[in-house]
Amino acid sequence: MELEPIIGLEIHVQLKTKSKMFCACDNTGEDQAPNTTICPICTGHPGTLPVPNKVAIAMASQAALALHLKVNSHSKFDRKNYFYPDLPKGYQISQYDEPLASEGYLEIVVAKETIRIGIERLHLEEDTAKLLHGQGKTLVDFNRAGTPLMEIVTKPDIKTPEQARVFLQELRLILRYLEVSDADMEKGHLRCDANISLRPKGEDKFYTKTEIKNMNSFKSVEKALAYEINRQTDLWQHNNPPIKTVTRGWDDKKGITVEQREKEAVNDYRYFPEPDIPPLNINPEEIQNWQVSLPELPANRRWRLQTDYGLALAEAQLLTDDKELGDYVQRVVKSLSNELEGELKAAAKLAVNWILHKLTPIMLAAGLTIDKLPFSLSQMTEFLLLVSRRQVNSTNAQLLLKTMVETGKPPVAILEDNDLAQSSSSDGLIEIIKTVVSQYPDQVAQFKAGKDPVIKFLLGAVMKQAKGKADPLEAENNLREFLK
What is the residue-level pLDDT of the chain in tens, covering all 484 positions? Predict the structure, then answer.
C-alpha cells in the first residue's frame, strides 16, 4: 500500500507590541526579572476588565493581508476554558468561530516547483505564562502571560516535511519584513505545532491525526515530521493505524516523538463569547490603509532582483533572506549606477560580486555586521568605481577592501599609501613580458606548440614581476601578441 502524508501547521507568533494584549504591562523585553511585568489584568484577578491592544490588531491584520487572507470587518473574542498552571485566569481569551481573518495562502518554492499552501484562518489571543522546570520542581513566570499572540492555521495542504520547513522559513521572513515579530523559534517568538496523518494514495478521506509539539527550530519540525511518517507507516503496514488523536512531544536528543496525552476535542474547551470585550468592527477604509502600507515582501523582492538587476536566483535569495544586506546592496547599486550613467545591471553585477562574495567574508572574519562597517556607502561606491575603471586590479582590490574594513580609510588614500594603483605604462609591461619569455623558454615552446593553457602560467609570472600592478587583461593580450 502506498501512503501519502497529510500535514497541517498551527503557528503561534508573538507580536512586537510595546504592551500586552489586554493590559498596559510592558512587552518590550525578555530579560526582566520573573513576575515583574504583570498586573491584576494579565494575572487574572477577579473584577478586572481587559482592553484589546489596537496595535496588535493592526499588526495581525497586516500579517493577514500579506498572506492573502481576508480581514473580516466583524470578528469577536471568546473564552477558551481549561485549567493549567501557566494559565492564571483558568481561561484564555482567544477567537473561535469568528476570527480576525480567514481564507488565504502562501506560495513556496520547493525543488524549483511553486506550491500554494492554503491558510484557513488567522486569529488573535493572549499567551500563557512560562513554566521553568528543574531540580525536581516547576516555577511559574507570569511575565509572558498576556503577550499578544497571533495564531495562523494552515489547511492540510503540506505533503512533505521539507515543504513544512520551507513554509515556516518563508513565513518568518514575511513577519520580519512586516516588523510585527522577531519570529525567533529558539526564543519562543514563533512556535509551531504540526498535525500529521497518513492515508492511502488516491483517497480523499482524512484519517486520525497526531499533533507534534515542542519543536524549537525549522530542522526539528522537518525531523519530527519525517520520524512520524516512518512511525505511522509502520503502524499502517501492521494493520494498526492510529485511531486516537494524541499529542506527541519531539525529543530532539533522541530523535523521536513521545506520546504525551490524548488531544482535547473542541467541546472540551467550552468556548463562549468573551463577555468583557465587545465584537471587533473594523472599518473597510482601515483595512485598505493597512493594505496600502504593506512593504515589499520577500517573494516580490526576489523577483525584482532577478528581473531588474539580472541576478541569479541564489543571489536574489541571499539578498532577500538577509534584509539588511539586501538593503545595503540596493543603496550601493543605486549610487553606482548614477556614476555609471544608468547602467543598472552592470552596477548590480559589480556590486553584488564584491559585496556578497568578497566583502561579506571579510566582515565575518572581523566579526562585523553590515551596519557596523567603518566606511561610508559613498566610499564603497568609490571603491567599486576604481575597480570598474580598472584603476586597481582584482588582487590589489581585495587587499584594498580588506584595509578599508580594518582601518575605515577612504579607498583612494589606501591606494596611494600602499602603491596599489594599476600601472598604465605599456612600455614597462612589454619589458616585463620580454624578461618572462626569456626566463621560461620551455613553457613558451609548449604554448607555441598549441598548449594554450600554458599562457596562464606565463601570465602569472608577468603579474608577479609587475607586483600585481598590471592590468591582467591588457597583460594577457600583450603577451599573446608578443608570442605570435
Answer: 899 999 999 999 999 999 999 999 999 987 899 999 999 999 989 999 999 999 999 999 999 999 999 999 999 999 999 888 899 899 999 999 999 999 999 999 999 999 999 999 999 999 999 999 888 999 999 999 999 999 999 999 999 999 999 999 999 999 999 999 999 999 999 999 999 999 999 999 999 999 999 788 999 999 999 999 999 999 999 999 999 989 999 999 999 999 988 766 667 789 999 999 999 999 999 999 999 999 999 999 999 999 999 999 999 999 999 999 999 999 999 999 999 877 899 999 999 999 999 999 999 999 999 999 999 999 999 999 999 988 888 888 999 999 999 999 999 999 888 877 765 555 567 888 888 888 888 888 888 888 898 888 988 887 777 766 677 777 788 888 788 7
| C-alpha span between 146 and 130 (Å, rounded) | 11
Q: How far apart are CA 195 and CA 347, in angstroms?
A: 47
Closest CA to 154 of 198, 126, 121: 121
User: According to CATH, where is 1.10.10 located in the chain?
Assistant: 426-482
Residue 197's nearest CA partner among 207, 183, 188 is 207
Phi, psi torsion values for 336, nearest 5 degrees: -70, -40
CATH 3.90.930 matches 426-482: no
